[in-house]
Amino acid sequence: xxxxxxxxxxxxxxxxxxxxxxxxxxxxxxxxxxxxxxxxxxxxxxxxxxxxxxxxxxxxxxxxxxxxxxxxxxxxxxxxxxxxxxxxxxxxxxxxxxxxxxxxxxxxxxxxxxxxxxxxxxxxxxxxxxxxxxxxxxxxxxxxxxxxxxxxxxxxxxxxxxxxxxxxxxxxxxxxxxxxxxxxxxxxxxxxxxxxxxxxxxxxxxxxxxxxxxxxxxxxxxxxxxxxxxxxxxxxxxxxxxxxxxx
Length: 247
Fold this sequence. Notes:
This protein is of the alpha/beta class and 247 residues long. It is built from 6 helices and 13 strands. The chain folds into 2 domains: 4-69, CATH 2.40.240.20; 77-242, 3-Layer(aba) Sandwich (Alpha/beta knot). The protein has helices spanning 20-29, 89-99, 119-139, 154-161, 205-213, 228-242, and strands at residues 4-6, 11-12, 15-18, 37-42, 46-55, 60-69, 77-83, 104-108, 147-148, 166-171, 178-179, 192-197, 217-220. Strands 9-8-7-12-10-13-11 form a 7-stranded parallel sheet. A hairpin with a 4-residue loop joins strand 5 and strand 6. Helix 2 (89-99) runs parallel beside helix 3 (119-139) and helix 2 packs parallel to helix 6 (228-242). The protein is elongated, with a radius of gyration of 20 Å. The two termini are 23 Å apart.
């Protein structure tokens, strides 16, 4: 069974008390009963294995059997700046990026994005994406859930994430730039890698110039032209392997 995220206020040793939407899921979908085992992770980086003592319409009470602390961070954080994709493709990228350990996801308004996220729909869509990330983080037994940030333009990324400890990479098809296998990457846990992935229609020339001006290193995956969602997962996997988070 996956781990489930709870607020630290839900944990009062020797018990954990669960209410709200998670309670409904545990009662109605998983049908937990007294005697079952449940694992929860709180926002302080503590994970508890519990035995269910009581399940009612108002709460679930679990007795803490043991607790472990999240391992220390040893590698850079990965920020995925993904141009908006149509249909379920964006949902799929968020789900898989979460499973692969991305720390933050920034939807990007790109010139050639088929999807144009309207202001009055932004809050609803962000909440939906955050739920997808939450479920993926629980399923993959992560210690934290990645943040889904407000959509941005490329021009805004440098302002948001332009620290001196951020290495910026842009995937550009038919690029003659750097190889993802050999490009220098930061190694310290306080560093960031910001990965910029384009939409189905590719980057506009103006966006490529702007990214170059902002210090992004253009990289390529070779001669094949991959779909946007495939490219995102391929690059994330390679970066996570190189920084020690996979393999």
